[in-house]
Amino acid sequence: MFRSILLLLILAVVTIAATTKSDRWPREMQHEKGTIIMYQPELELFDGTKLEARAAVSIKRPSDTAAVFGAVWISSTVNVDRDLRMVYIKTLQITNVRFPESVKDQETLKKTIAEALMKDLPPLSLDELVTAMDAVKAQNSNAAKFKNDPPEIIYATSPTVLVFIDGDPRYEAIEKSDVERIMNTPFPIFRTKGSTALHLYTGQYWYTTTDVAGRWTVEAAAPKDLAPIAKQVDDQTKEANGGTMPKKAEKPSTIIVRTKPSELLMFTGEPSFDPISGTQLMAAKNTEASVFMDISSQMTYVVLSGRWFRTKNVKAGPWEFVASDALPADFKKIPEGSTYDEALAYVAGTSASREAVLDASIPQTAAVDRASATCTVTYKGEPEFKAIEGTTMKYAVNTSSSVLLIDGKYFACDNGVWFESTSAKGPWTVSTKRPDKVDEIPPTSPVYNTKYVYVYESTPTVVYVGYTPGYTGSYVMGPTVVYGTGY
Q: Among residues 153, 190, 182, which one has the least CA distance to residue 166?
């Protein structure tokens, strides 16, 4: 199937360098089984003997209501002629294709593409490939700048709720009431105007304190002023739980508040370990976290947000970061299908981790109507912008929206769609081109995730857009995937 994709993919290899003119893309080809479109490829490796790249591909069959997007990976060995400044491909392999499960015979598709490409392999420009590889190295350098410092890891052996407040509490009044809420936390924490008492509702119990970082005690019921809010929270909880309230816990939890990134490592009683056959590992069986003991070193390992940390003392620390490819070899031997196999996705060299890395390249896509698509940006006061470190770009600091100022033009990234305007306040129109400079945004920036949002093509009425998991905080870091930049 899809044999006539040959011409399309040959063109891909020819123009694979990052300096390729964007107006050559995307490439469309009609096929008896549907329409195939390849979007501008991205170089991953060129070392003088080997070339690797990936590209987004869409397929729309007669039975499909919309195109199905996926990705294809190309690997080849090459000869370099430095006098002619040309690169000649010796061998070529399609190492992987990734589409949703609705696209059948993906292995057949992979072999067909590889066989077709080997029939006609035009030379490539050495200078373009070198330039493109420099850009890849810069991007990899950014990935290496992810922050992997251990967070505060809080050990608990009884029911505990970790409440995160992003910095000092910021209070805002609730309309038509004397109640204020802390807005920089997802937890419902309230106070009555003029009162120092704070009230937290977990959907199970009410808790109160006069010191947000201090000891919280249980309240018998919601304070009178908060009764309407309690009902609203209960209604939302019921809706999220299929129309019924979750069973109330027999005992209230301990409340711990932190204003800096922290992680809760909670066990049901003291840690209890289960030996993993054929390894020097034991897995904690009375926690929802992935916790392992390496018997030979007596170190305890835990994976948090895709990152591994270890310690000699699980109760008190200190903890240290461990790269996924520096784990004891026995981690690769955790049995697939076992209770503890979720950890395999974060162990370098496992099938699960390779699958996760490949999945991180598959875009979520949408067709956006240019006439009806809207973007609303609300600022607290007049728009304020701050420089993005190491770039000529700026971003808005007094809005919850991602707004960038690039070369005198404003871009807003909203729900995976790029909008543009000549004013920070709009009006906003759907962008037909992704801002080129967003690839320069470093991981330290709050708007780093916008570099994973793409514009594939446009028509007079529709813009085809998409984003990879990086937009929602899932990033490839070496051989595995992590969540969050660490900043």
A: 182
Residue 310 pLDDT exceeds 90? yes
State the average pLDDT for the chain: 86
User: Which among 144, 169, 192 is the end of a domain?
Assistant: 144
Instruction: Output DSSP code: residue 287.
Output: B
Same domain, 104 and 27: yes
β-strands 68-81, 364-369: how paired? unpaired
pLDDT digits (tens, 9 = 90+) for 434-461: 998 998 999 999 999 999 999 988 889 9
Specify the range with the lowest mean pLDDT, choosing from 7-11, 18-22, 147-151, 328-332.
7-11
Tell me, yes or no, whether 136 and 11 share the same domain: yes
State yes or no: pLDDT of 34 exceeds 80: no
* 8 Å CB contact between 263 and 155: no
Nearest to 44 by CA among 418, 474, 357, 445: 357
Closest C-alpha to 265, from 164, 155, 160, 149: 155
The pLDDT of 181-197, averaged and rounded, is: 92
For residues 478 and 324, the answer to whether their CB atoms sit within 8 Å is yes
Residues 185, 207 within the same domain:
yes
What pLDDT score was predicted for residue 122?
Answer: 65
**Region for residue 105 given its phi and psi (left: phi exceeds 0; alpha: psi -120 to 50; beta: otherwise):** left
Closest Cα to residue 411, out of 438, 441, 390?
Answer: 438
Phi-psi group of 337: left, alpha or beta (phi > 0 → left; psi -120 to 50 → alpha; rest → beta): left
For residues 227 and 125, membership in a common domain is answered with no
* Residue from 364, 362, 449, 372 nearest 413 by CA: 449
In a domain, 485, yes or no: no
CATH number, domain of 119, equals: 3.15.10
- Does 7 lie in the same domain as 138? yes
Q: What are the pLDDT digits (tens) for 229-287?
A: 888 888 888 888 888 888 888 889 999 999 998 999 999 999 999 999 999 999 999 99
Region at 104 (left for phi over 0; alpha for psi -120 to 50; beta for the rest):
beta
The crossing angle, in degrees rounded to 10, of helices 106-117 and 6-14 is 60
Number of domains into which the chain is organized? 4
User: What is the extent of the structural domain holding 388?
Assistant: 364-467
Using a cut of 0.85, tell me whether the model's pTM lies above it: no
Domain identity same for 163 and 123: no
For residues 249 and 267, state if they share a domain.
no
Residue 479 lies inside a defined structural domain of this protein: no
Whether pLDDT at 103 is above 70: no
CA angle 90, 91, 93 (to 5 degrees): 155
Domain match, 293 and 420 both: no
Higher pLDDT residue, 238 or 59?
Answer: 238
Secondary structure letter of residue 392 according to DSSP? S
Burial tier of 120 (Cβ tally within 10 Å: 0-12, 13-18, 19+): exposed
Residue type, 86: M
